[in-house]
Amino acid sequence: MQIQAVMANMADKSNSLQSKVLIALRDIFRAAVENGLIAKSPVSDRLKARGKPTEEKVTLTPDEEAALLNTVKNPRAKTFLLLCLRTGTRRGEALALRYEDIDFTGKRVHIRRNAIVKEHETTISDELKTKAGRRDVPLSEDLEAWLHEYGPKDKAGYIFSMRNGQPLTLSAFRSMFRLISRELPEKHITAHILRHAYITRLFEAGLDIKEIQYLAGHSTVDMTLSVYTHYDRESREAETAEKVRAAFA
């Protein structure tokens, strides 16, 4: 196998993806060497990932959140928006939710499944993105009130479903999400940005790292810290700007 050729074929891919491929290749060939299948790994230590660095995700401010919640009118789109902003679920986790996963008595959202979303069919799996993905997230008052008002009376089935009761397909999800993203055209809003906003609000509220790691379903605290680093830098920049303005007032 010509590893250099493999990486050359990925020249248009991001630095992050190239790094993941290199890590996987090194692990595979290291195991092959350890098991006596090959004498030497073909993945040179000098081989580095290239490609464009992954663009930093810019979260929503509280004012932008409020603007979205006020302007998105479609009930299903607003349900998805509010659910992500108040629980931090990943897209697949949100689309796999059934009303039975909402514990209105205990005020919890039980995240237990993941939707594998495809163009014409979506399947539901008990395997979450990470082992830490299985979690119970507090149910906020506004989300609870919204689900009571706009959810079915019998509280059965998927929260987001097709007319036949099956979970949303990719094309149906995209149609729904456009009703959200068009309201802030100056920002590239994705389901992950909504999740990022939830985690940022938790930091702003003063929750500690381990609490946020659990609520976000992060497998390692490093993943949570990466969000915190972004949040902390922006907070410090804003505070510094205020101090500078005050110094010359």
Strand-helix topology:
Layout (H helix, E strand, L loop, with lengths): L2 H6 L6 H20 L27 H10 L3 H13 L3 H5 L6 E2 L4 E4 L2 E4 L4 E4 L9 E4 L2 H10 L19 H12 L9 H14 L4 H8 L4 H27 L2
Antiparallel strand pairs: 1-2, 2-5, 3-4
Helix pairs in contact: 4-6, 4-7, 4-8, 8-9, 8-10, 9-10
What's the short version?
The chain has about 250 residues and is mainly α.
Characterise this structure:
- This protein has 249 residues and is mostly helical.
- The protein contains 10 helices and 5 strands.
- The protein has helices spanning 3-8, 15-34, 62-71, 75-87, 91-95, 141-150, 170-181, 191-204, 209-216, 221-247, and strands spanning 102-103, 108-111, 114-117, 122-125, 135-138.
- The strands form 2 sheets. It has a 3-stranded antiparallel sheet with strand order 1-2-5, with no helix packed on it. Strands 3-4 form a two-stranded antiparallel sheet.
- Helix 4 (75-87) crosses helix 8 and helix 9 (209-216) packs across helix 10.
- It is globular, with a radius of gyration of 22 Å.
